[in-house]
Amino acid sequence: MSTVVSGLKASGQSPTWRAATRLLHNRSFLIGAGLVLAIALMALFADALAPFDPLRNSFRTRLLAPDERYWFGTDHFGRDILSRVIFGARISLTIGILTALLTGIAGTLIGATAGFFRPLDNPVMRLMDALMAFPAILLAIAVAAVLGASVTNVIIALAIATTPHTARIVRASVLVVREQEFVLAARALGASETRLLFRHVLPNALGPLIVRLTYVFATAILAEAALSFIGVGPPPPAPSFGSIIAQGRDFIAEAPWITIFPGLAIIISVLGLNLLGDGLRDVLDPRMRS
Questions:
Q1: What are phi and psi of 288, to 5 degrees?
Q2: What is the pLDDT of residues 40-63, one digit of tens each?
Q3: What is the C-alpha to C-alpha distance for residues 100 and 98, in angstroms, rounded to an integer?
Q4: Where are the domains of the chain?
Q5: Tell me: domain 16-51+62-288, CATH 1.10.3720.10, correct?
């Protein structure tokens, strides 16, 4: 009897409530969300958490090993690495968030247009295929080199590099949803094509996009580190995870802590985002549910 009652209660729950319940019971999602939240809070409250000014030079304290005063040591300008990592999280996460946002908007518009309006499918997706022929990091390097080294240009370069794959994912989801019976029924009742797309198709095709954007976020953090390492990332002295590593590469033998700690920050950030994406995929993809 209790099993029947619990089944009736479960069947009466809204889809949103059931999805939230599954997320709260998904270990990957909880661990990933915890790591990402910790990094986000560190970036948000960097002014209060950082023990020193991340841009302050002091040649008397240059290349000090980690101790009770400088927990992560200092770099070749005497700047506190812990403070630079904390403030670097703000820049790196900003690049990741804005890259994911721009990629989501552009990829959704392009993929939805190609998947829903069939005459536009072939020309639009051939353009995306042409962009996907280049490795994303090489395309980002080329765009960043043309535009110049700045945070804004890095975001634009990474958004251009990650949009084609995102558009293909959205297009595939739209192609499936647009043939569902509820969409055909809405069209038979006289709904306009625009209303069908934005009211019925897109809301039911966003699951794969949400998962994709978590990986774009992680990819953007890694790509920013790569761009900074070759000199086309955010310009110094502004700290980001990648720029701190790039500035410490000449001292890696005598002061390895300059590169170790921002490298660990990148690992924790990317690991958290990947676990978050895996958890979302397990919940949002019906094929992954047990």
A1: -90, -10
A2: 999 999 999 999 988 888 888 888
A3: 5
A4: 16-51+62-288
A5: yes
